[in-house]
Specification:
By secondary structure, the protein is an alpha+beta fold. Helix content is 41%, strand content 16%. The structure holds Dihydroxyacetone and zinc ion. Dihydroxyacetone binds next to loops.
Amino acid sequence: MDSILNICPATAKAVNDVAEVAGYLWQKGWAERNGGNITVNLSDSAADAARTLQPIAPPTPIGRTLPHIKGGIFFCKGTNKRMRDLARYPMDNGSVIRVSDDGTNYSIIADKPVKPTSEIISHLSIHNYLVGKGSNYRAVVHTHPIDLVAMSHNPAFLEKDLLGTLLWSMIPETRAFCPRGLGIAPYALPGSAELADATIAQLDEYDVVMWEKHGVCSVSENVGEAFDMIDTLSKSAQIYLTAKSMGFEPEGISPEKMEEMKRVFNL
Ligand code: 2HA
Ligand code: ZN
């Protein structure tokens, strides 16, 4: 079979973007072994030639019905595959799937039968939620940033909006480029429907959700933007930790100054 990348320029572009971000996640030290996962919704952008590809593996039940992504097409990182390998050889370490017309299962359609990420239920449930609410967000990135995960081990930081506000106050960029802050999903088993639902419960209010003692999950129009929000939050966490390691509590930008920024930059 010819690669889907040769018959569908939009898919080729999206996969190239995924590979670039996968490399960043590895370089950041956020992607140990197979840690983290990325999916992109290609349903609107896929060429007709890609849409009509036949399954190359038996269908897999999703475990729930996802009505808003019936027939949808997604690029998914493969389960047990390494981010650093996804960066170099995306079609050996990820695959393109199509959700069935009843929204209950999916089949791999290209290029190779690489089984999708262990967090597929979260990713597809999130895409279903985003399409259902008319969002233009098409990318979901999950990764394990050391600083942010460390902060989630402090119960005091898990109170609603406490950590998000603290991170906003470390540097103006974070307020500007992660304007919806940081939601918190309580610890749940990786790959579980419970984790999927706890994440979706945060997405009305937030674009980035902390998975307590595990990682973060970010949604945006494309993978680059989803990565940037995590990177910005991590920068703030680094500033906080650096100040603490120098022996003082960082003062933080005052609520008044942050309010001013919200006003001036129309956040
Ligand atoms: O794919 O990060 O959460 C490995 C993980 C599971
Ligand atoms: Zn993870």
